[in-house]
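Memo to structure team: turn this sequence into structure tokens by end of day. - J.P.
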Amino acid sequence: MTAAPTGAEPAAAPQDPPSAPLPWADAAAEQFQLLRLSPLPTDRHGAHPLRFVQFGHVERHSPAHSLLRLEIRLPGQMTHKEQNRLDVRVDHDLRQVRLGGGQSLNLEPSNRGLGRFLLAQAGKWLQGRWPDYRVEPLELPARDAMNDDLRLRRDQVLRSFGLEIAYADGQPTQGHTLDGVVSQLRPYWNEEKVQALQVLDSAAMLQQAEQQLQEMAAQLRERDERMARVEREDSGLRFTITCLVAFAVFQAGLLIFIATR
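Reply from structure team:
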């Protein structure tokens, strides 16, 4: 048996194969719905006027995996690829659910109830199919805890959804959710903030808006007619006053002329 040559380099340690890419990475929303964001009082985050956004979703299934992708689209406004999106991935072999892709739920417009709405849609979808599956713990990004206001708001949304949160050694930037079960999730949201509109509801709103515009146009025409009438009357009065002044000046001049003669 031939001996290995002296000074030969040891064989390189085998490396772990790269993880396979997740399926349906480029899946785009296929079904859409209109959302009405109710106007809210102005606060330190700014004004919150009435607004309408588009809610889209798509789902994919295979024997091993399932995907639900939720998106919020803003008319006339571009957002980043990771923004306004929530992915829900299901591993059927492990009977496990993963919310999000390891990133924070970054939504625009903020503080309008959209985060709770998306989580509620995810919870309803999961509970209707796999209520006994396990919810994988999530590492909460540190950037979401850079100030107490952001951290408390994030924690309130997650806890209201049914997820418990723990912090490592009491550090507010090192948080994670605990193990859970799909059946424990609470798929509810504040319907006073976010209202999902059906096609007939949207058509009724457009019809009502059209009627209001017609009524306002009629009121404006009536106001313009009144103003035109007042302007005509005002012009007539000005002409009458001018004539009276001219006649009074003529009379005064005539009296002075007679008196001096």
